[in-house]
Design goal:
The complex is a heterodimer of chains A (about 375) and B (about 190). Chain A has one domain: Rossmann fold. Chain A contains 14 helices and ten strands. In chain A, α4 packs across α5 and α7 packs antiparallel against α11 (about 280-295). With about 375 residues, chain A is of the alpha/beta class. Chain B is mainly α. Chain B folds into two domains: about 10-150, no CATH class; about 155-190. The N and C termini of chain B lie far apart (about 90 Å). The chains are: A alpha/beta (about 375), B mainly alpha (about 190). Chains A and B meet through α4, α6 and α7 of A and α5, α6 and α7 of B.
């Protein structure tokens, strides 16, 4: 247990020290005699390119989400799963993970050595996951009110009943983190701890390209004409994020490492997840962009969900807010202010030197993020 | 009315809308009366087609602005690549240095563009114009559905909205029933 953890649940907000930035992993050029490209090397390059092309076609077939689980409830909108416990003694308070509405939840269980879910299980927690299904054209009027007050609430009740407890840890990622915070303001009696990863909160402080694009998007017209936000539109938004360093350079790296099975496997899992994008329910997306990004209503405590107003100052439960310094989807400046808005006396901000996905699905996350999250939770889960 | 006003009123309007209006008004003249009823469907379609043309022209204008930004950024990145990369590509090292210089230059140029407020505004306009284009096509399609006596998109939307509201009401009623039966159980001591 760290010195900070030993301070107990009444500690005030503390910021994790930011580890030193890793220098870019470019080999230092050595002065040497210039070698020309030989025909054999060109032939080898062609072989690698050809293999890369065929390997990329298999991305959809690669296995993800392998941690054993049981489906507790499946509706047209969501699937509630309960993961098989890995150790005998589990912490008393169950964890319900609320995933985002963007892409698929298997990023939390991408592969055994980088699984967020598996790590929590191995630390003795009882883990449930709320996995959203793709909305159909008939779901264009589904709003945050439905997601928060109906679907999350239904799942919370099921988890509480199954675990025979009256409170759980609500744990959200990205958009799911914002929804978890909304839920906690309205149904605090069922929440023991709130753990959020990269929540979208104060969008006026957001510095990302996504935030900038959202500010000029006519979402009212989109709802009227397209209904749900088409997946193609989401791809278009992703394509402007680090387009060359990540979008193009990653394929150069793949060609260079095409014979390394482990590298290829890791690459394909992430690639599969990146392009596995369902549409977003029209009214929900309208609220997300118009109310949260354009009017910043969540941070102003003026966001309306049905008959309720979301007032973040009502949150009094212990809160852990995890942000990434290199997050180019939700900037830490947008997530961190949540800790200043809530009334919880036990609140903690953890900052890590990684990105939005690196925070949850990387070896860095397994070695640096999850042990600290587990420690924080263990002190508050009995 | 002054002489100038009269001149302005009678100034011919040769825009597609002006010509359409002129033609529609002519059709409504009493002497051509029966023709009006006959051409009603035609005039509705014509209106939509003219609107589609207008929307397409706006979409093209916004697309042109978008592509001119992209092209200018591409030129800037290509220039930076040329300045930073080896002048001759002979060795493996030269190719590798060229690749690095290119990725660096293009990333800097395009990330700068995509995060600029100017790009956000133009992107928003292209997005909006694309939606207008879809809307104009939908309007034409809706007319075809009406001719076939099929429910239109707007009619289905109304049903979906009703269904959504109904689901919500059922949910609230269920909750109320649960609360009242819990209260009843509590007062009965069961």
């Amino acid at each position: 247990m760290t010195k900070q953890e030993a301070m107990g649940p009444n500690q005030k907000e503390q910021v994790e020290p930011v580890p030193q930035a890793q220098p870019p992993q470019e080999p230092v050029p050595k002065p040497q005699k210039k070698e020309t490209v030989t025909p054999e090397e060109l032939k080898e390059m062609y072989r690698r390119l050809d293999k890369t092309r065929s390997v990329l076609h298999t991305a959809g077939e690669i296995e993800v989400g392998q941690t054993p689980c049981e489906v507790l409830r499946e509706t047209r909108t969501y699937r509630l799963v309960h993961y098989q416990q890995m150790v005998n003694k589990t912490e008393r308070t169950p964890i319900l993970i609320v995933y985002a509405l963007i892409n698929k939840s298997y990023v939390l269980d991408l592969q055994p050595d980088k699984s967020w879910v598996k790590s929590l299980l191995s630390q003795g927690f009882d883990v449930y996951l709320l996995d959203w299904k793709a909305p159909t054209n008939a779901d264009k009027f589904v709003s945050f009110d439905d997601y928060v007050n109906c679907y999350i609430n239904e799942c919370v009740d099921i988890v509480l009943k199954k675990s025979k407890v009256d409170k759980l840890t609500l744990h959200g990622y990205c958009m799911g983190a914002s929804m978890s915070a909304m839920y906690t303001t309205l149904h605090q009696e069922k929440v023991r701890n709130l753990v959020v990863i990269a929540p979208v909160v104060d969008t006026e402080k957001d510095t990302t390209v996504i935030g900038s694009l959202a500010k000029n998007m006519d979402v009212e017209k989109m709802l009227q004409v397209a209904g749900n936000l088409p997946a193609e539109q989401l791809y278009a938004c992703y394509s402007v994020l680090k387009p060359f360093k990540q979008g193009v350079n990653k394929y150069f790296n793949l060609v260079q490492n095409i014979d390394n099975e482990q590298f290829v496997g890791n690459f394909l899992r992430i690639e599969k997840w990146l392009y596995d994008t369902p549409p977003i329910a029209g009214e929900t997306f309208r609220q997300w962009v118009a109310d949260i990004y354009q009017k910043n209503l969540l941070a102003k405590n003026e966001l309306r969900l049905g008959d309720d107003i979301i007032d973040l100052t009502k949150i009094k439960v212990p809160i852990l807010n995890i942000v990434a310094d290199e997050d180019h989807l939700v900037s830490p400046q947008c997530s961190a202010p949540l800790n200043d808005m809530v009334s919880s006396s036990d609140r903690r901000l953890m900052r890590f030197h990684t990105g939005h996905v690196g925070l949850i699905a990387s070896l860095y996350s397994q070695n640096n993020v999850l042990p600290k999250v587990g420690q924080w939770l263990k002190a508050r889960s009995q | 009315m002054t002489q100038n006003d009269a001149k302005e009123d009678s100034a011919p309007d040769f825009s597609p809308e002006g010509l359409y209006k002129f033609w529609a008004e002519t059709l409504k003249l009493p002497t051509i009366g029966p023709m009006f009823a006959f051409s009603k469907e035609f005039s509705n379609y014509a209106n939509d087609i003219i609107n589609l043309g207008k929307v397409m022209s706006e979409l093209k204008s916004h697309n042109d602005n978008y592509w001119s930004l992209i092209t200018a950024t591409y030129a800037k990145a290509a220039k930076a690549t040329f300045e930073k990369s080896p002048k001759q590509l002979v060795s493996k090292e030269d190719y590798e240095n060229y690749r690095r210089a290119m990725i660096e230059a293009f990333e800097d140029a395009f990330t700068g563009l995509f995060s600029s407020p100017e790009f956000s505004v133009i992107y928003g306009k292209v997005f909006s114009a694309q939606l207008d284009f879809s809307k104009a096509l939908q309007s034409l399609a809706e007319k075809n559905l009406k001719i076939l006596n099929l429910p239109t998109r707007s009619e289905i939307d109304e049903i979906l909205k009703d269904l959504h509201d109904l689901r919500k009401s059922v949910r609230e009623l269920r909750k109320q029933i649960e609360v009242s039966s819990d209260d009843k159980a509590g007062s009965d001591g069961t």
